[in-house]
Amino acid sequence: MKGKINFLLLLLGLLVAPFYSSSQEQQLAGYWQMIVDGKPGEGSLFYRFDFKNDSIVAVTKQAGNNNFTETKKWMLVNNNIVITGNPDDKITEVESGTFVLGDNEIHYANNGYTGVLKPHSVAFSWMHLILALLGLMILNEVFRRNRYALWTFFVLLPLVLTFTVWINQGVTYWFKWVKLYSVVFAVIWFGLIRFTSIHKYNWVKLIAALFLAVNIAEAVTQDFSMGFLPNIMNGVAGVLNIITLFYGWKKIGPDDSKERDMVWPDMTTFWIIAYDIWNIVYVYLNFPGSTSIQFIVLTSATLPALFIKKGTWLQARAFTLATWFMYYFTFPRFTEQTELLVPRNQELMITVAAISLIANVIYLFIFINKVRKKEQ
Question: What's domain 24-119's architecture?
Answer without folding.
Answer: Beta Barrel (2.40)
